């Protein structure tokens, strides 16, 4: 009787056997989704760090814009 595990992504039963090449995932897609979640997580963390930097930048930009606009007057 084959052993079955639940796919970490969708919870579908995956038969644990050499033919199930994506185990413990049920398919390549579920494996990629799981990897994608990791990437999203990393992206989200770096994004929040970026926006902290971006906030400081955003404070600089308006004064730079004013400096650009004034000579053109
Ligand atoms: Zn799955």
Keywords:
1 helix; 73 residues; Erythroid Transcription Factor GATA-1, Chain A; two-stranded antiparallel sheet; mainly alpha; binds zinc ion; 2 strands
Structural notes for this entry:
The structure is a single chain. The protein has 73 residues and is mainly α. It has one domain (3-72): Erythroid Transcription Factor GATA-1, Chain A. The chain is 62% helix and 11% strand. The protein has one helix and two strands. A two-stranded antiparallel ribbon has the order 1-2. The relative contact order is 0.10.
Mean pLDDT value: 77
Number of domains: 1
Number of strands: 2
Annotated CATH topology: Erythroid Transcription Factor GATA-1, Chain A
Q: Gist?
A:
With 73 residues, the chain is mainly α.
List the helices and strands and how they pair.
Elements: E1 3-6, E2 13-16, H1 28-72
Antiparallel strand pairs: 1-2
The protein binds zinc ion.
Residues 7, 9-10, 12, 25-27, 30 line the site of zinc ion (ZN).
């Amino acid at each position: 009787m084959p052993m079955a595990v639940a796919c970490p992504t969708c919870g579908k039963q995956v038969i644990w056997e050499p033919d199930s090449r994506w185990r413990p995932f049920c398919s390549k897609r579920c494996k990629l989704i799981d990897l994608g979640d990791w990437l999203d997580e990393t992206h989200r963390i770096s994004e929040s760090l970026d926006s902290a930097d971006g906030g400081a930048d955003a404070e600089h930009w308006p004064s730079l814009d004013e400096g650009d606009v004034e000579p053109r007057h």
